Amino acid sequence: MDFDLSDEQRMLKESVERWIADNYSFQQRTRYAQLPDGWNRELWGQYAELGLLAIPFAEADGGLGGGPIETMLVMEALGRGLALDPYLSTVVLGGGLVRRSGSDAQRETLIPKIAEGSLLLAFAHSERHSRYDIADVSTSAKADGDGWILNGEKAVCLHGDTADLLIVSARTSGERLDADGITLFLVQGDAQGVTRSGYATQDGLRSADIRLDAVRATEVLGPIGKAYALIARVVDEATAAVCAEAVGAMSALHELTVEYLKNRKQFGVPIGSFQALQHRAAEMFIALELAKSMSILASMSVTEEYAVERNRQIAAAKAQIGNSCRFIGQEATQLHGGMGLTMEYSGGHYFKRLAMIESLFGNTAYQIERLARAGGFD
Fold first, then answer.
1. Radius of gyration (Cα) for the chain, nearest Å?
2. Taking the model in full, what pTM does it have?
């Protein structure tokens, strides 16, 4: 199997990495985090100008017709820069739901706006009690004339505080844990009855808890009561995307650590001259290379139509990358000493983001259990 990038993919990789390097130094990131939204809207316009927001969408819908490998390359670069912007929430999660289940009219209306940077999406699905169970939805939707009335609460909605449009999952039939009966609704972020409580997460990004009090929704995304398989598919795509982001962040953190070992002196010599520390840096490199391979597997697996096989491969990739995130983050922090925990140094921020990625869409223990249910990994 050929794992080499095409000429177009190499150009994308080089251009995105160069742009991130120019616009996401640690000092610049610190300034962006202090803006009212927690990220830079002017920079978001540059995402659009570069075509990054249009990559995964079909050309017929106003996109560039890219695939999961192109998304992987972008997410790696964003991970390297510790980007704060709502790319995952708008393009991968929200955009993925629209791309896979939107009607012709919905795709024609929404995708060009996403691609030009004028529409921000957020997927309001997780609830306080649901943890990683996609089917655990108690938010209700009751038919009312030509629309629906939504009631419930959503938790930790990624970039939900600044989204223009929310994609809300609600139960139109069945019991709380049933896979059948879940429907997706398009709800304006400022609709009557919507209350959003935004906050910064531990890694510096933004999330929101969302309350729905008799919110009227008239537009459904996809078939009524049959959203479970769609959500599972798009969550798999998002999992592959954050695996790639983790690879970018781990690569940058490993480089930072090796540079520190070369420059930090003790007893009159660089600490990197001590063989024991060289071994630890080498073990970090091995964990990184394992993560890179599994990230490629995850990105290639999202096109798998057989759900059980896709679940197996995505779970295996996320489990390995979760282990690598924890190992590389902890080793980097220990090798830096107290400096690695200071918020004035980028190393601590990489550690925080890697810790969040390890738990996002299912932590390592959950993925191992998921993999076991799917029959293991060959």
1. 21
2. 0.95
